[in-house]
Amino acid sequence: MLNIVGLGLSLKDISVKGIEAINKSEEVYIESYTSLSEYTIKELESFLKKEIKILHRSEVEEEKPFFQKDKEITLLVYGDPLSATTHTEILQEAKKQGIQTNIIQSVSIFTAVARTGLQLYKFGKTASIPFWTENYKPESFFDLLEQNQSIGAHTLFLLDLNPKENKFLSIKEALEVLQKIAKKRNYKLTKAIGCARLGTETEEIKYDTIKNLQNHDFEKAPYCLIFPGELNFSEEEFLRRI
């Protein structure tokens, strides 16, 4: 049995079902590249009273040491297990290999964004803003922003990260990229919501002008950016209090 267990956004978000699955497991793994937490692996091991083996991207996507038919295994995932396509692909591959799976879900960034006061049903498509390099400067995420704005929908941008190399795209850097594209397209960006460590005890949510967000220190990752679409009275009232 392969249990894929969501850890949620903070240390104690994991469900009773998740803890029960971990306690029954002979081996417990955690994938460490699709998200980030405010707590360390040692703190998680102490909380769960279980040894945890850390897996990086190649180990999850290629080697898959958690594929063992004769053992009870748990793979821990930050947030919700089915938020990333990687985990959906794991399920498909496990089915092909005849491995029974058990999904235990938890809170994710896709529900925690409601903490901004924006209503979930009004969000459009979500995109990630990747690290720009000299030879890699995609703009497809900006296309999505324009599409969402055209129908009055809110836009959630997830900012790129590489925990193995301790690299995290900051809100300031993401806004710089967005402004460069906006200038080229003659598109005006006014206000946005910057979020850091959303859903944790140290979360920060700031609704302000692009300039003020760029000058603000959001401290530790993970980060996300939200560009509101058309706001109703309730949303406007909530944002004024942020």
Plain-language structure description:
- The chain has 242 residues and is α/β, with parallel strands linked by helices.
- The protein has helices spanning 16-24, 41-48, 57-63, 85-96, 109-112, 140-150, 171-185, 210-214, 233-240, and strands at residues 2-6, 27-31, 53-55, 73-77, 101-104, 127-129, 155-159, 161-162, 167-168, 191-196, 204-209, 223-227.
- It folds into two domains: 2-107, Tetrapyrrole methylase, N-terminal domain (Cobalt-precorrin-4 Transmethylase, domain 1, 3-Layer(aba) Sandwich); 110-240, Tetrapyrrole methylase, C-terminal domain (Methyltransferase, Cobalt-precorrin-4 Transmethylase, Domain 2, 2-Layer Sandwich), CATH 3.30.950.
- It has a five-stranded parallel β-sheet with strand order 3-2-4-1-5, sandwiched between helices. Strands 6-7-12-10-11 form a five-stranded mixed β-sheet.
- The chain starts with a strand and ends with a helix.
- The mean pLDDT is 93.
Secondary structure topology:
Blueprint: E1 2-6, H1 16-24, E2 27-31, H2 41-48, E3 53-55, H3 57-63, E4 73-77, H4 85-96, E5 101-104, H5 109-112, E6 127-129, H6 140-150, E7 155-159, E8 161-162, E9 167-168, H7 171-185, E10 191-196, E11 204-209, H8 210-214, E12 223-227, H9 233-240
Parallel strand pairs: 1-4, 1-5, 2-3, 2-4, 6-7
Antiparallel strand pairs: 7-12, 8-9, 10-11, 10-12
